[in-house]
Amino acid sequence: MNGEEVGRLLHAYVDGELDPAKSLELEAYLAGNPAAREACDRLRGISGAIREKADYHAAPAPLAARLRASLPAVPDEINRRAAWPGRLKLAASFAAAILVTWFAAIGYLRPDGDERIAQEALASHLRATLVNRLAEVASSDQHTVKPWLSARLTFSPPVMDLSAHGFELVGGRLDYIAGRPVAALVYKRRQHMIDVFVWPGQAAAGERTFARDGFNVTGFARDGMLFWMVSDLNQNELHDLSRLMAGNGRAP
């Protein structure tokens, strides 16, 4: 990708308008390019700041007058009367296009925050699966996986042995979600691989669930940590895993 293409794609990516394949391609590029990643974070920050702090007002009445005044004069009165409705529609369309462009530019309104995280988590899971890089540290021992991750992150992720409940720890890796490095814990349920992305944060109470292209995504918060799980495992079993993790590895 060249700089011009990346700049164009970043705006569409922040607005959630890229198709899955292009999102994967761009995220793979961002993972290896800190400067592009910073540019993406800046766009998100600007979008969020505008959304939270900008004043919103109805379009003033003088706007219509200015648009009418900007139209070229028609010498014939009859032609003017006949042409005016079409020109007014054109002016209204022009004004609407400006408004649409503005809202698209300040974006970050769709999808909402949790939906964006779900999209990023799914894209990261698919990318790691496609390149066969689910686990950078491959071990079923939580006392091996946790120190490896803690040494490479600014926080210590909770790593649980849930094999007694049918969820086998496979290992872990570093990943990048929501504009920051995160821990990716990898579990296995029969032949289904499960990514559990973990990082510090707060969220509203309750569990969020999404279904995307045959995959299930579940998010929740516990003890100052955000958890986002992605798998092609059915939603009921993924929910069982979230309940185990929310209960510190104890069955509810």
Describe the model.
The protein is of the alpha+beta class and 252 residues long. Helix content is 48%, strand content 20%. Strands 1-2-3-4-7-6-5 form a seven-stranded antiparallel sheet, with helices on both faces. β6 and β7 form a beta hairpin. It starts with a helix and ends in a 6-residue tail after the last helix.
Sheet with most strands: strand arrangement: 1-2-3-4-7-6-5
Mean pLDDT figure: 78
Question: Secondary-structure element order, as H and E?
Answer: HHHHHHEHEEEEEEH
The biggest sheet, with number of strands, parallel, antiparallel or mixed sense and barrel status, is: 7 strands, antiparallel
Radius of gyration: 24 Å
- The unreliable regions are 95-111
**N- to C-terminal distance:** 48 Å
DSSP helix fraction:
40-55%
CATH superfamily of the largest domain, by name, is: MucB/RseB, C-terminal domain
Total number of distinct structural domains: 3
Question: What structural class should be given to the helix and strand makeup?
Answer: alpha+beta
Specify the number of helices: 8
Tertiary shape = elongated
CATH architecture of the largest domain: 2-Layer Sandwich
Q: What's the CATH class of the largest domain, please?
A: Alpha Beta
CATH topology grouping of the largest domain: Phosphorylase Kinase, domain 1
Number of strands: 7
Strand content: 15-25%
Lay out the secondary structure.
Blueprint: H1 3-14, H2 20-31, H3 34-53, H4 62-70, H5 77-106, H6 113-130, E1 137-138, H7 142-150, E2 168-177, E3 180-189, E4 192-200, E5 208-212, E6 215-222, E7 225-231, H8 235-246
Antiparallel strand pairs: 1-2, 2-3, 3-4, 4-7, 5-6, 6-7
Helix pairs in contact: 1-3, 2-6
